[in-house]
Amino acid sequence: KKRRSGGGGPPPPPRTCTPEWECADWTACLGGERSQTCKDKNKCDPDNFVTVTTEACINPCENGIQDPGEEGIDCGGSCAACGITKGSVRIGAPANIPVEIATPATVTIELENLAKTDLQDMTVVIPETGLKESLGALPAGKTRKVEVTIDPLKTPQLVKQLKTQAAPQITFLVMEGDSTIAERAATLELSVPEGFATQLRVCDEDLAEHYACEPGEPLLFMIVDNRGAESDKKNVQFVYNLEKDGKEIFSSVFGPFNVEDDEILIQSEELSTLSLPPEVYQASVSMYERGVKKAEATQTVDLREKEIKTKGLSAGFLIFLLIIAVVIVVLYFAVDMFMERGGK
Questions:
Q1: Does residue 159 contact residue 268 with C-beta atoms inside 8 Å?
Q2: Does the fold of domain 193-302 match that of domain 81-190?
Q3: From CA 200, how far away is CA 276, in angstroms rounded?
Q4: pLDDT above 70 for 155
């Protein structure tokens, strides 16, 4: 008899992944640019499944002609009311905004209506972060303080800019309808204290736009700032531990990774097998380079107001099974009573 060697024939061909791109609508024309975000629904490349295309544009409310629906040149209709011009609002905002990459920052800006008429449909927009907050009306001569949130982990494109410029720029735009009536630039001073940080979050729709995670799943971020270093970091590994009241409930090792000397590494890992009750936990991540511990970061994880998905049976499904069981029992006794009466 002839025998085949090699375990029964050639290995199966590698599985292929076919990208399925889904694109959002183009954004409004702001500051002479508009953008479109496309996302590969199959996430064939977990590190590059989101693309952002930017192109120049002309805002119809700023093109210098009277378009259909406008009451005058660049005013009325969907544009600002006639008589309200650019510069009608003063924006009081810091020129430099320090932000830790792992932590959302709240920035307070002050808006003052310098026009002689009330502003009715005001919106604050930061194109670089996608923030758009409706403010409603602002009477003439009045001021208002507005708090906006800047979250670098939800805008990783800002962090990527650090490779080409010392600090990324953002722009505060004040809109009246579709018209830009004020703008002010600011510089983000992005930092990672001590060069290393960690953050455990619950994935939401904003994070799912940029990272390979599903809303509701725990998502772990490990951040290394290697700017200004004399060399690359080689064979970097992260050891993650999660504790509750001093008792370890989860531990895992991620890596190895390489970090270039001018790079900020944001490594994300979805902890899809982790099921956590809504309580307070203590987390720590140790960073090792070539087997030598180089840094450690800790975090208090408060999930009391968060909801993390579990991989077990859902409550709805358990109720469904219970209903089926009750129906079966009722049918059993009904058939038994029918047979008993028939026997008589």
A1: no
A2: yes
A3: 12
A4: yes
Give helix then strand counts, H and E, for the chain.
3, 18
Query: Cα–Cα distance between 127 and 136 in angstroms, integer?
Result: 19
d(CA 141, CA 116): 7
Range among 2-16, 124-138, 161-175 with highest mean pLDDT value: 124-138
Residue 121 C-beta-side C-alpha neighbours within 13 Å? 12
Instruction: Assign a CATH topology to domain 81-190.
Output: Immunoglobulin-like (2.60.40)
> Which residue, among 269, 272, 297, has the nearest Cα to 283 in the 3D structure?
297
How far are the Cα atoms of 302, 318, 341 from residue 314, in angstroms, in the given order?
Answer: 23, 6, 41
- Number of Cβ within 10 Å of residue 301's Cβ equals 19
Q: For residue 13, what pLDDT is reported?
A: 57
For the chain, give every domain's residue range: 81-190, 193-302
Domain at 193-302: CATH code:
2.60.40.10
Q: Concatenate the DSSP letters of all residues of 177-223 into one string.
A: TTEEEEEEEEEEEEE-GGGEEEEEEE--HHHHTTSS--TTSEEEEEE
- pTM score, whole prediction: 0.69
Distances, alpha carbon 182 to alpha carbons 70, 91, 117, 124, 185, in Å:
20, 7, 16, 10, 11
CA distance 271 to 266: 16
CA distances from 59 to 27, 181, 232 (A): 11, 13, 45
Q: What is the tens place of the pLDDT at every residue in 112-145?
A: 998 888 888 889 999 888 888 898 899 999 999 9
Hunting for tokens 């830009």 — which residue is that?
Answer: 180
